[in-house]
UniProtKB/TrEMBL annotation:
This protein's name: Integrase
Homology family: Belongs to the 'phage' integrase family.
Domain of life from the UniProt record: Bacteria
Record-annotated Tyr recombinase domain positions: 164-363
CDD domains: INT_ICEBs1_C_like (cd01189)
Amino acid sequence: MAVIRNDNGNGYKIRCLNPRRKKMTTIRRNPKTGLNFQTKREAKEYEQYYLKNQVNLSLKFDSLFRHYIDDYMAQKISSSAKDVESWYRNNIQPFIGKRKVSSLKIVDLEIIAQSMQKDGYSVSYTNKMTTNVNTICNWGVAHGFLDRNPVAGYKPLKQIKTSEDLKYWTPEQFKRVLAAIPERYKDSDAIYIRFFVLFNYLTGIRKGEQRALQWNNIDFDRNIIHVDYHVNEHGERVRGRKNGNGYSIVMDRAVKDLLLEIHDFMKQLDGYSRKAYVFPSMTKGMNCPLGTYTPTRWIKELAEYCDLPNITFHGLRHSACSYWTSVVGLSPYEVADKLGDTVKVVLEVYADFFHEQKREVAEKIDRHSKALMKLLNEEEEV
C-alpha cells in the first residue's frame, strides 16, 4: 500500500491491495474530480476512503492473519515469522480463527485470557497473546481490511508481582553456574557466554538493553554506561529503555574490569568499531545484536546442567537485586537508580528483599524508644 509520484513527475498514483479481490490495484485519478491526484495528501485521503469502502464484512480472522503474516515476513526474518505463526496456531486460532472479524467483541479476548489462565499460562504471556490479536486488528485497519478494530477497548489482565514470585540465584548458586560454563560449552562460546551472563548479573540490566549496547555507549574515562536504546523482540534497535527513557549506569570496579576484558577480546575480531555491538551476534557479525532467545536458552541449559531452578534470563536481574539488598545493603532508592526503575516499582516488586533494612530501622528506633516512652509517661509536676 503506497502513494507514488507518477513517472512523468506530474501528480501521484495509488498502489494498494483491493480487500475484496485480494489483488493489487492502481488508482491513477481521483474519481471525485476526474483528474490526477495533485498532492500526496489528496492521494492519501482518497486511499483511506477507497479502502474503507472496500471492507469485506465476511473476512475471517484466519484470512486476516494470513495477510498480516505475509506482510510481516516481507519485513522480518522468516524464523521470527515462524514464531508468530506458532503462537497463533496454538493460542488464538482455536478460539477465533474461523470467526468473522467484524463479529468479534471484547468478550472474545476475555474468554481467550480466561482459558489460558486455566491452562497455567502466566499473566504476562496471556497478555502478550491478547495484545497480538489487537496488533493484527490494528494492522487490518491501517491496511484497509477493517474500518475499525472491534477489540480496541480490551484491557489486559493486571499482573501483581511480589518478591515471593521472583526467581533468582544466590551468589553461591551463580558461582556454580559460572564454573559450569566452560564445561557445558566449547572454548570460544564459553568465553562469550561468561561475558554476557556475568555482565548481566553485575549490572541487573534488562536483556534488550544489554543487547543494544554499542561501544560508543561506554565511557571508560567517566566510568559511565549510557543505556539509551533497547533491542525489541523483532531485533530492532529502538531508542529509550523498554519502559521509558534512557538512563545511565555508573561502573563499579568489577563492571569496568569486565568491560575492559570484553573490549580487549572484541577488538581482535573482524568488524570491530566504536559502533559495533558490545554483545554482537557471533554468527552474523559485529554489527548485528545477539539474538532474542539465545540468552534465555543459555540460562535454561545452565540451570539443567547445574541442577538449579530455571530462573529465566530476567532472573539474573532479580539475582542482582537480591545481592545488592541482602549483602551490600543498598536502599530502595539506590537499587532503583542502578536498575533504571522508580522507587515505587522497586518497592512493589522487591518489597521482601528489604526486610533486613526494615529490621535495622526498627533497631534504631528501639535504641531511643525507651527514653521516649519514659518522657511520654512522666507526670508533670504541679
